[in-house]
Automatic annotation (TrEMBL):
Any GO molecular function: helicase activity
PANTHER family: DNA2/NAM7 HELICASE FAMILY, HELICASE SENATAXIN ISOFORM X1-RELATED
Ranges where the record places region Disordered: 382-407
Highest taxon in the source lineage: Bacteria
Protein name listed in UniProt: AAA+ ATPase domain-containing protein
InterPro entries cross-referenced by the UniProt entry: AAA+_ATPase, DNA2/NAM7-like, DNA2/NAM7-like_C, DNA2/NAM7_AAA_11, P-loop_NTPase, SF1_C_Upf1
Domain AAA+ ATPase as annotated: residue spans: 523-912
Acidic residues biased stretches: 390-399
Gene3D superfamilies: P-loop containing nucleotide triphosphate hydrolases
């Protein structure tokens, strides 16, 4: 290609001579100039060669070096060549400089519509898309990158300059149109000036060989894309100041194909929507009825008046008790929220009782799409994206902030829902900390529900309109959908040697695991991996992500290309904790309600990564500590100039003394010593010591809490000043030493003396009132300037390289949010729950708050737990593949039984076992799609589903039991190939055993009971569990094991916490509005030898909180028990009688989860006699079979 054809003028034409060797170049070859960092000579990069050159014209060479030093990019073209009599090669170069450095664009995918193709045809670029595509590529791709041949250097005009250039060309063409043929005249007449509203950075003009191609970012419904706006012949040289050199992987797409795919999908979805029993249609009806129920609840609660006369502060509940004059206990519960409203401007669903849910939800959907920048009729592309400030994402807003809510603070109350703390017969206690100064109106807040519903509806609309990232998603979901044509993708190899070694270091992958990875990587749309417990689902997911990362390594635009999602935070965090892609911690967005940002699993992992990264750097180069100290010294000096203080001056002098320690040739040594002595003397009376003195514990209760630690801290602060002091000062240090080594078994005889010492120190360090603002001391600044100049010149450890690394470490150890955002910017994998996949935080990181989010791949773990309407939220964001991983034999998705009952009453769902609608509602979308994708496999022969067939988590005895009881009846049995010796444990009383039963027989005194919330508990069971856990977890054999305690009932979980508190294993902490049980710090985590957290040491919870988890030993609390006489009176075949006796134990899914969390041993705790009855055989055959296993197998046992 000739630069002249691009109308790019040469800044210089100069003859150069290669210094080292002859270059195999020809006239017309294009390259670049650089400067050697080693020799400072000019270098020519051309045709994959690098050679130092010398200009024959020194004046031009100086100007070239000047341009390069200003970081201006360049292109050169060989315009002539010659050879001297001495045989030296000479090359004449034309050199063009561009404004600024090369701009990295990554992949530049530009859509061409019919108008552009018509313009290209008139310019003889070809008659079809393929020919035009090739002509544009050859005309724009100026210089191939030597390191990555898929990337090229391209000249372009960007931003507002692009707008000006195209409009300038437009005017010139109009002037010259009289001299053009009629068809060109017509083309010029019909072209319009570019819209000045699009004069942002997304405008671009590519300079091709004899043409200009204008590009802007456009919107097609919810689909943002780069599109060619105008193609014209070049008529004048481009203004040099406006041309930039970019590096990009250029690609052109036939936009009509994308639109056609969306249109075909939308048309087919309209036809499928008419099917009453269609999958999505049934869930739409469920959502509508759920919405109507929500509206009815808000209307039944109506308006609650809060006045000074009907309100009183409740110190026990720490909230405002408001008299409502009616019983709202059937409508409201603790945890629900109210919101403040203007009685003259009530929400439309209260002001207009005739408003239907359909109308209300449509209105809210339009508002939501406008707010998120994804409406098909709102906001033309190019509006500057701003962070969302709507405050509607409960889990994302106000991160890390705590507010004391005041009903009189209008600014606060205008946005924040008010939490209900307690519901009484005729009063409500709400989370408000003061009395109202006037009358206020409160209504039931639908904000939390509304956010969830808006996200679900937005996803559903995208599916219906064919505007999801994968336009044919709806067609794939609906049973009668017909597959749309899609481009065939190249096959991806399942595993590489690197991934095998990293992900499967101990045992090679099974054949089915490798097949599962291949199916997921090569699906044209959706893949489902079903995995029974312990079959390595998480391991397979990590391998898939590693392979996707390898495959995308060539692509420069990989930030957040993979989304990992799940129904619960635990599932996402569990998976994200296993990932370390490109040595970066994976980023999860969003947090649990009430959780601070600093306490999230992602924050903890990033903090650990920061510490480890910094430590590795320091270990490799110990001199970095000195560079860090020098960097800190520079910063402290700048801080001193702005906010001077003697304390800061002393801190700087101490650092300097460390640098010059042992050196005798320091010219300012006497000045440093004098300043140090003077400032140290002043510091001994500094108020900076006061916080440590005040923090000293001197009461018995307080000292037992953390008194020794605080005494040790104060001693550390005083020691530099008191160690060489008088007798009194040394006695103070001795007393603090005694206090700092105190143990719980020692007496507190020194407390009185400690209290007296604290009073003396408080008097000594009482602040002296200063009426004048501290001023910068000239002697300090003169000395510090000399130090900062002298140290790097006289200490060879303060190198430029070390300084750069120290700057990096300083940023690394600085703001955690900045580090989080930077890691997110370079991370391949993002994580979020299915709901928070549309949250504020992830939106800001992915699309700066607005627009449809798009990922190459979406992976949903524990997908069988996620309701279809929530699962669709991340699914609509996947462009190339959706990978659902889970097990429909474990915990099911959550549905509101009252809504299903109402649907039956309204005959939306037909009665009977064969009801298609009820089948759609009761079975997870994961299970439904498993069957649907098998149908698609028959249509196109592409494998989309697979079931893993070998478990590696659990002892083979327990693995075989779970397979036989929960999976074999459905033809999904799996193997347990690992030997029993790998799962051996030596806990007291159960050495080498795997299946155990701890019998807690029925008695009138120890039978199950119910709390106020109707949840069941059994005290004796809890006490037996606590006793056993205490023995095992504190033993030498159990110190490195993890333990899980599972119950089907929340009340029993609380009882276990209480029972373990007697042994100090659990404790109750007071939060803002309640008291919560937690695991004591010593029992919370297991750590490796470097102190890195490995896994939970103890978890206590209901079954729902254990899915996806694994522990060495699991204790399962049955709770249910009845007398033999009562059981005998029950009818064996009666489902009602079975439910009355066994309750939640009859849930096959929950029982499956609870009995498959262990690795080494499972201990069922409960009434053994109950599970041996005929009624139990009918209702809970799995538990009866387990008791028989405990009795009969040599690896079983009874406790």
């Amino acid at each position: 290609m000739d630069l002249k054809k691009l109308n790019i003028e040469f800044n210089h034409r100069v003859w150069v001579k290669p210094l080292s060797k002859a270059l195999p170049v020809e006239v017309g070859d294009i390259g670049r100039l650089t400067i050697s960092s080693r020799t400072q000579r000019l270098q020519l990069v051309i045709k994959g060669q690098l050679a130092s050159i010398e200009c024959r014209h020194l004046g031009i060479e100086k100007d070239i070096v000047l341009q390069l030093s200003r970081r201006n990019s360049n292109l050169v073209q060989v315009v002539g060549e010659s050879t001297s009599k001495e045989g030296e090669q000479g090359i004449e170069l034309g050199i063009s400089f561009f404004n600024g450095e090369v701009i990295e664009f990554g992949e530049l995918d530009i859509s061409l519509d019919g108008v552009i193709l018509g313009q290209a045809t008139k310019l003889d670029f070809g008659d079809n898309f393929s020919d035009v595509h090739q002509s544009l590529l050859s005309g724009c791709q100026l210089l191939q990158d030597d390191l990555d041949p898929e990337y090229f250097y391209l000249p372009a005009i960007l931003g507002s300059a692009a707008l000006d250039e195209l409009n300038r060309v437009h005017e010139l063409l109009k002037i010259e149109k009289q001299n053009q043929p009629n068809d060109i005249k017509e083309s010029i007449t019909n072209d319009e000036l570019l819209d000045s509203q699009q004069s942002l950075v997304h405008n671009m003009v590519l300079l091709g060989s004899g043409f200009q191609l204008a590009i802007t970012e456009q919107k097609n419904i919810d689909f943002n894309f780069l599109a060619a706006k105008k193609l014209v012949q070049r008529v004048n040289p481009a203004p040099g100041f406006a041309v930039r050199l970019i590096r990009a992987k250029l690609k052109f797409t036939d936009m009509d194909n994308v639109v056609r795919l969306q249109t075909l999908a939308s048309q087919q979805m309209k036809e499928l929507a008419e099917k009453e029993q269609g999958y999505l249609n049934v869930w739409d009806k469920y959502g509508d009825l759920e919405g109507e129920t929500l509206l009815r609840k808000a209307r039944d609660v109506a308006v609650i008046e809060c006045t000074p006369d009907n309100s009183i502060f409740d110190p026990k509940e720490k909230g405002l008790e408001v008299s409502v004059g009616r019983d709202l206990r059937k409508l409201l519960k603790a945890g629900d929220c109210l919101e403040l409203v203007n009685p003259e401007n009530l929400p439309n669903y209260l002001a207009g009782p005739e408003l239907s849910w359909s109308d209300y939800s449509t209105e809210k959907l339009v508002e939501y799409q406008k707010k998120k920048g994804i409406s098909p009729v709102l906001n033309p592309w190019g509006a500057v994206a701003k962070p969302s400030d709507d405050g509607n994402d409960v889990d994302d807003q106000n991160e890390g902030q705590e507010k004391k809510k005041s009903i009189n603070n209008k600014e606060c109350m205008a946005f924040d829902p008010i939490k209900i703390l307690k519901v009484n017969a005729d009063t409500l206690v709400i989370d408000i900390q003061d009395l109202p100064d006037r009358a206020y109106s409160l209504v039931y807040s639908m904000l939390g529900d509304q956010i969830q519903i808006e996200r679900r509806m937005s996803a559903r609309v995208n599916i219906q309109n064919g505007t999801s990232a994968m336009p044919n998603l709806g067609v794939l979901i609906e049973e009668d959908g017909t597959l749309l044509p899609r481009n065939k993708k190249p096959q991806i190899k399942a595993l590489t040697s690197f991934v095998k070694e990293k992900i499967f270091p101990k045992h090679p992958p099974t054949m089915m695991q490798e097949k599962a990875i291949s199916v997921a990587l090569n699906t044209p749309d959706i893949a489902i991996i079903q995995g029974p417990p312990g079959t390595g689902k998480t391991t397979v997911i990590t391998a898939i992500i590693e392979r996707l990362n390898q495959e995308s390594a060539k692509d420069k635009q990989v930030t957040g290309s993979i989304l990992v999602s799940g129904y619960q935070h635990d599932a996402v965090e569990n998976l994200m904790s296993r990932l370390s892609i490109n040595n970066l911690p994976a980023i999860k967005f969003g947090k649990r309600s009430g959780q601070t940002e600093a306490s999230t699993a992602t924050a903890v992992k990033i903090d650990h990564w920061r510490e480890q990264t910094a430590q590795r750097s320091l270990d490799k180069n110990p001199d970095l500590k000195l560079s860090q100290s020098y960097l800190t010294l520079e910063r402290d000096y700048r801080r001193y100039l702005k906010t001077p203080s003697d304390g800061l001056a002393l801190q700087m002098i101490k650092v300097v003394k460390e640098f010059i320690s042992g050196k005798t040739d320091v010219p300012f040594l006497s000045q440093i010593d004098a300043l140090h002595e003077e400032l140290t003397q002043q510091s001994s009376n500094s108020v900076e010591m006061l916080p440590y003195v005040r923090a000293l514990r001197v009461t018995e209760v307080g000292f037992k809490d953390d008194g020794s630690a605080r005494a040790a801290m104060l001693k550390t602060k005083l020691q530099p000043f008191f160690e060489a002091g008088d007798k009194e000062q040394r006695e103070i240090l001795e007393l603090l030493t005694l206090a700092s080594i105190w143990k719980a078994s020692d007496p507190l005889s020194f407390l009185a003396e400690l209290k007296e010492m604290k009073l003396d120190l408080l008097t000594r360090y009482a602040p002296i009132v200063q009426l004048k603002t501290p001023k910068v001391r000239k002697d300090v600044t003169r000395c510090m300037k000399r130090c900062l100049e002298w140290i790097p010149l006289n200490d060879n450890r303060i190198t430029e390289q070390n300084q750069v690394i120290s700057e990096y470490l300083a940023h690394l150890e600085g703001s955690s949010k900045e580090v989080h955002d930077t890691i997110a910017e370079y991370n391949v994998v993002y994580g979020a729950t299915t709901q928070q996949a549309e949250g504020i935080a992830i939106r800001q990181a992915k699309v700066e708050g607005k627009g449809l989010m798009r990922y190459d791949t979406i992976i949903v773990d524990e997908a069988a737990r996620t309701s279809p309407r929530d699962l669709m939220i991340p699914m609509v964001q996947a462009e190339n593949r959706i990978i659902l991983v889970g097990d429909h034999r474990q915990l099911p998705h959550m549905v509101d039984e009252t809504v299903i009952k109402k649907m039956k009453e309204m005959e939306i769902v037909q009665e009977g076992d064969q009801s298609i609608e009820e089948d759609h509602l009761k079975h997870s979308m994961f299970q439904y799609l498993f069957s649907r994708l098998q149908q698609l496999e028959k249509q196109d022969g592409i494998k989309r589903t697979i079931t893993l067939d070998a478990q590696f988590r659990s002892h083979p005895l327990l693995g075989q039991f779970a397979s036989e009881q929960f999976y074999q009846p459905y033809g999904e049995a799996y193997q347990s190939p690992l030997p029993a010796k790998l799962f051996d444990q030596q806990l007291q009383g159960i050495e080498s055993k795997a299946a155990l039963w701890l019998d807690v027989p029925y008695s009138e005194q120890t039978k199950e009971r119910r709390n106020q919330a109707k949840s069941r508990y059994r005290v004796l069971e809890a006490e037996k569990i606590a006793e056993q856990v205490k023995i095992w977890i504190d033993s030498e054999q159990g110190k490195d094991l993890s333990f899980g305690v599972i119950s089907f009932y929340k009340a029993q979980v609380q009882e276990v916490f209480k029972a373990l508190a007697k042994y100090g294993i659990t404790e109750q902490i007071e939060t803002e509005n309640s008291k919560d049980w937690v695991i004591s710090q010593d029992y919370a985590m297991l750590y490796d030898q470097q102190g890195k957290p490995l896994e939970e040491r103890l978890r206590i919870g209901t079954v729902d909180s254990f899915q996806g988890m694994e522990f060495d030993v699991v204790l399962l609390s049955m709770v249910r028990t009845q007398s033999a006489r009562e059981v005998m009176l029950k009818q064996v075949e009666s489902p009602k009688d079975q439910q009355n006796v066994f309750g939640h134990l009859m849930s096959k899914n929950r029982l499956c989860v609870s009995m498959t969390r262990q690795k080494k041993a499972l201990v069922v705790v409960g009434d053994a006699a109950l599970v041996q009855t005929a009624l139990a055989k009918q209702a809970i055959p799995e538990l009866q079979a387990y008791h028989q296993l405990c009795c009969s197998d040599e690896l079983g046992g009874l406790l």
